[in-house]
Amino acid sequence: MEYENIKKLMDDMNNYKLTALDVELPDGTKISMRKEAVKEVIAKDEINNATVQSFAETTEETKGNIVKSPMVGTFYIKPSPTANPYVEIGSEVKVGDVLCIVEAMKLMNEIESEYNGKIAKVLVKDGESVEYGTPLFEIL
């Protein structure tokens, strides 16, 4: 593959805000590009009437139980872009209720509540990349 084509792939990766790109060419050449996702620190955002607390705000003392991500992936509060969120602030949840999805390697992994209670905070923005152990929800 010529340098100009590789450069175009890199430009496309930036233009479309991709964080990873894997290409396998017919001649057996494999190209794999990855970049760290830059997490935006937001004060508050509104997603279907649910206030999202930024990750920076999680450093303040928590009063409830924290549900953490069991894997690296992308956090989704809704099963599809046009669907309602699984939970919102104030939603009552029981052990085993689905709270969100973490997409990892094109697999949608439902994250279930480990606690009974009420959603006090949503600590991650919809579509944001999460790491293993990232706090997702606070449940009182």
Descriptive account of the structure:
This protein has 140 residues and is mainly β. The chain folds into two domains: 3-34, no CATH class; 44-139, RNA polymerase II/Efflux pump adaptor protein, barrel-sandwich hybrid domain (OB fold (Dihydrolipoamide Acetyltransferase, E2P), Beta Barrel). The protein is built from one helix and twelve strands; from the N terminus they run αββββββββββββ. The protein has one helix spanning 3-15, and strands at 20-24, 30-34, 44-47, 50-53, 65-68, 73-76, 92-93, 98-104, 107-112, 117-122, 129-130, 135-139. The strands form four sheets. The protein has a four-stranded antiparallel sheet, with no helix packed on it. It has a four-stranded antiparallel sheet with strand order 9-8-6-11, with no helix packed on it. It has a two-stranded antiparallel sheet with strand order 1-2. A hairpin with a 2-residue loop joins strand 8 (98-104) and strand 9. The longest helix is centred in the N-terminal third of the chain and has 13 residues, at 3-15. The chain starts with a helix and ends with a strand. The model is unreliable at 37-59 (pLDDT under 50).
Strand content: 35-45%
Shape: elongated
What percentage of residues falls in helices of 4 or more residues?
A: under 10%
> Total number of helical segments?
1
Mean pLDDT: 78
CATH architecture verdict of the largest domain: Beta Barrel
Number of strands: 12
Sheet having the most strands: 4 strands, antiparallel
Low-confidence stretches: 37-59
End-to-end Cα distance, whole Å, is 55 Å
CATH domain topology of the largest domain = OB fold (Dihydrolipoamide Acetyltransferase, E2P)
Strand order, sheet with most strands: 5-12-10-7
- Classified by CATH, the class of the largest domain is Mainly Beta
Number of domains: 2
Order of helices and strands: HEEEEEEEEEEEE
Assign the CATH superfamily of the largest domain.
Answer: RNA polymerase II/Efflux pump adaptor protein, barrel-sandwich hybrid domain
Structural class: mainly beta
